[in-house]
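Example for tutorial group B:
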């Protein structure tokens, strides 16, 4: 092992100007642009466990003293309901309907009871929501999420687990905030066209992937104290960091498959461990840390590794044990050696190495 110490549609129309002629009289008219959706009626979950569609589980105030006449999202013509799960909410909420809301929020802190959101229904939130704390959906304490969700943003503040049955689609950003731990379990699915952003403040934030199918533009270390752990699953996402991430980050790859595409940027100050799993990237590799370990598999374009950048005249060769692939299949397996001057080749002492005996590096 090599180790270095140091995730309802609203239509806006442009204004229009026209002229109508009625009985020979001409009238000019103008239409104003339709404003984006804003928050409307807030519904409070005051039941323990139960069905989303049971009106008795909802109230119009946090104390449960004003009975609701419908559940949030019940009226299909209303797309700006807010579903708020208050401090005391616990148990399992069965999302048994497909509902369209402005946003949903599991309120309070990690010290309050945990709850589960599951079911075969779906929560859809506003696609034109702004990027402020009172416009995004999110979970602020321990929640197991195992249903379908679609929206623009999603915030994770507490210990949030996307479990089997979770099918989440975001069009912008999954924010993982300070002092939180977000986990993807086997059977979960997450798709985001933007990024999974870790740690926008200053405390530790952790993303753990134990399984599932995760697709994102990038997984990005937004600030210091961010940690990414991959132990299983199929992940298609670049790995990157923000300039605000200056210290104390960690990456562990201990299983699963990470297809990073052309983005594989990890800062030198980042502690990391690579013990098992598969990594694929077309990015140019200039750091030998990413070549793997005795039990690891690292996939790369072999011609993208530049030995000159990682070896010095005082250390002209570097030995490691790994399996390396390229797009056309297995190239080298076993005890390998990088030569600063020319090439990557099988180590002279290796008697069980397979296939290619030498490959020159660009």
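The residue assignment follows.
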């Amino acid at each position: 092992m090599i180790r270095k110490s140091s995730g309802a549609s609203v239509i806006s129309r442009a204004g229009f100007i026209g002229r109508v002629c009625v009985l020979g009289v001409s009238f000019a008219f103008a239409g104003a642009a339709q404003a984006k959706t804003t928050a409307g009626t807030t519904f409070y979950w005051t039941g323990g466990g139960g069905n989303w569609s049971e009106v008795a589980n909802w109230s119009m105030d946090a104390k449960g003293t004003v009975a609701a006449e419908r559940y949030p999202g019940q009226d299909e013509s209303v797309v700006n309901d807010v579903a708020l799960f208050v401090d005391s909410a616990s148990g399992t909420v069965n999302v048994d309907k497909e509902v369209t809301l402005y946003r949903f929020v599991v309120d309070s802190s990690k010290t309050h009871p945990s709850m589960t959101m599951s079911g075969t229904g779906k929560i859809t939130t506003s696609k034109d929501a702004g990027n402020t704390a009172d416009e995004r959906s999110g979970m602020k304490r321990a929640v197991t999420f195992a249903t379908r969700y679609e929206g623009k943003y999603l915030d994770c503040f507490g210990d949030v687990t996307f479990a089997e049955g979770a099918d989440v689609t975001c069009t912008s950003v999954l924010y993982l905030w300070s002092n939180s731990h977000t986990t993807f379990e086997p059977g979960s699915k997450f798709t985001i066209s933007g990024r999974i952003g870790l740690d926008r403040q200053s405390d530790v934030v952790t993303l753990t992937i134990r399984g599932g199918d995760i697709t994102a533009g990038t997984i990005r270390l937004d600030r210091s104290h961010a940690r990414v752990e991959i132990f299983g699953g199929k992940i298609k996402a670049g790995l990157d960091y923000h300039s605000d991430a200056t210290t104390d980050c960690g990456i562990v790859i201990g299983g699963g498959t990470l297809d990073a595409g052309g983005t594989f940027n990890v800062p030198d100050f980042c502690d990391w461990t690579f013990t098992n799993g598969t990594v694929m990237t077309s990015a140019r590799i200039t750091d030998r840390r990413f070549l793997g370990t005795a039990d690891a598999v690292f996939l790369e374009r072999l011609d993208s590794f530049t030995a000159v950048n990682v070896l010095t005249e005082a250390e002209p060769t570097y030995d490691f044990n790994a399996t390396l692939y390229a797009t056309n299949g297995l190239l080298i397996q076993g005890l390998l050696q990088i030569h600063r001057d020319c090439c990557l080749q099988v180590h002279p002492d290796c008697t069980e190495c397979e296939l290619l005996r030498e490959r020159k590096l660009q």
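Residues 1-34, 292-309, 326-330, 355-362 have pLDDT under 50 and may be disordered. Compare this with the pattern of hydrophobic and polar residues in the output above.
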